[in-house]
Design brief:
By secondary structure, the chain is an alpha+beta fold. It has helices at 13-20, 56-66, 71-88, 99-108, 110-119, 124-131, 135-149, 158-170, 182-193, 240-249, 255-263, 344-365, 369-372, 381-388, 432-449, 457-472, and strands at residues 27-29, 32-38, 48-53, 174-176, 204-212, 215-223, 228-230, 234-236, 264-266, 269-278, 291-295, 307-311, 325-334, 373-379, 397-399, 419-421. The strands form five sheets. The protein has a seven-stranded mixed beta sheet with strand order 3-2-11-12-13-10-14. The protein starts with 12 loop residues before the first helix and ends with a helix. Bound molecules: nicotinamide-adenine-dinucleotide and lycopene. Nicotinamide-adenine-dinucleotide is lined by residues 1-2, 202-204, 237-238, 242, 388-390, 396, 423-424, 430-432, 435. Lycopene binds next to helix 5, helix 7, helix 8, strand 11 and strand 12.
Amino acid sequence: MMFGFGDKGTTNLLTRCLAALGKKIETVPDQTQVFYHLPASEAHPNGLNVQVWRKYEDFVAELCDRFPHESNGIKAFYDENWRIFNSLNTLELKSLEEIRYLLGEFVKHPIACLTLASYATTNVADISRKYIKDPELLRFIDLECFIWSTVSAELTPMMNAGMVFCDRHYGGINYPKGGVGRIPELLAEGLTERGSHVVYKANVKRILTEKQGNETKAVGVELADGRVYRGKSIVSNATRWDTFESMIGEDQLPPSEQAFRERYKKAPSFFTMHLGVEASVFEGKGEVDCHHVIVNDWSKLEDAYGTLFVSMPSLLDPSLAPPGKHIVHAFTPDWIDNWQGLSVQDYEAKKEEVSAQFIDRLDAVFPGLKQGVVFKEVGTPRTHRRFLNRNAGTYGPIPSRRPLGMLSMPLNRTAVQGLYCAGDSTFPGQGVNAVVFSGFGCAHRVACDIGLEPTWPALDKPFHKFLDYVRDNS
Ligand SMILES: NC(=O)c1ccc[n+]([C@@H]2O[C@H](COP(=O)([O-])OP(=O)(O)OC[C@H]3O[C@@H](n4cnc5c(N)ncnc54)[C@H](O)[C@@H]3O)[C@@H](O)[C@H]2O)c1
Ligand SMILES: CC(C)=CCC/C(C)=C/C=C/C(C)=C/C=C/C(C)=C/C=C/C=C(C)/C=C/C=C(C)/C=C/C=C(\C)CCC=C(C)C
């Protein structure tokens, strides 16, 4: 489910990132972001079905139709997200740790910056509860957050919601032709054409540090096969737990990282199925949407196996599957502890058991799917840990207590001089467009620190102290 592939504004960061490398990807527009299949209630005895249409007005009209008594609240809540999005969409998006750039944007776009600053500490529930009272609708808003943040509205920063709830209508959800793997392929091509060198199968075991005066400085990396690369700046796109636990070492854990671990915990991983199914399963059913979310019991929304995610990209790009077949990628949050300590036989048997139950639940929404399965590949949180090299297979950090909106998340600098983090362990967190923002910010900050971009060093230090203080006390 790709955000950020729009062709206008400043928030289409995936388009911009590829363009910076002279690349463009062909995409297929999705008519909806997601089709929600939700439990029956007194108000919705046949279940609550909502499609998030590409056109904002169509989505709002559909939701108002399901909750007519909350029409005003629905419009007010979603419209407020546009205030954030429209502000973000006028700024040049770079490092929030660079005071010269920030003040420059304040001068150019004072209203947009003040609007954003006014939401910096706000979470979604602060706004939704202001306008909406119906508990089922508030649970729907929780789910609207959960499917990308894996936490409820109370723990989801409004800044992120503004991006997600609006970009899906503004730039739309667009699927890259040839599959999502085309994104890194094109990035690698663009980088190589510009003189960079990508080293594959290079497992970083250790980030090398040296004491320089009172400071610890990162000076290089050592790979598992013993090769060493030295550099002025080291950027880790692994999770913070992997970066600091295994590559820096627990014995050198800076206090700011200890504070991070108190504020954030690991989100669950996923149980994942990749199925090949007969195309006939979907034939004669009109235009079937690519993304679906299925919840059978509102009280289990956040539990393992409580929310099912389904993505069927060959419906948008048939070249991804053999003729007459479709891909069904179905996944659900799951914890690594559910899969530890099993014998090989028990592990395999559990995969069979859980996938069979999962397929039954899919068959209730897509009748005939169970009969139509011709291929099945199952992954567990252990698979995520092994192949993505993510601690406990985690989807990323989630707040362990109510966060101070966007201010709680670390940005790109770390307590180790010359070491930066990018990716979903940094602001604004999970999401492809989100991690591209973190990449843009990181590149800008590094460029300032090595003298490639202008900066005001005299103001930098106090500003960083201020940001660290706010974060460590949030
Ligand atoms: N849009 C969707 O449908 C969807 C679905 C799931 C996830 N996502 C998002 O995708 C985002 C991806 O974020 P990301 O880029 O921060 O994480 P990532 O896990 O995709 O990238 C980390 C990279 O670092 C590499 N790596 C890890 N440890 C290493 C080591 N020791 N040595 C060398 N390389 C190492 C990994 O191989 C991987 O390529 C997530 O935030 C998630 O939200 C999106
Ligand atoms: C500093 C201070 C205080 C102040 C200042 C003010 C200002 C200027 C501010 C600014 C800010 C900014 C710039 C910000 C930015 C932000 C951003 C960019 C954000 C972004 C975000 C994004 C996101 C979050 C996204 C997400 C997404 C996701 C996660 C997705 C996911 C998906 C999945 C998982 C799939 C699903 C599937 C199905 C349903 C089937």
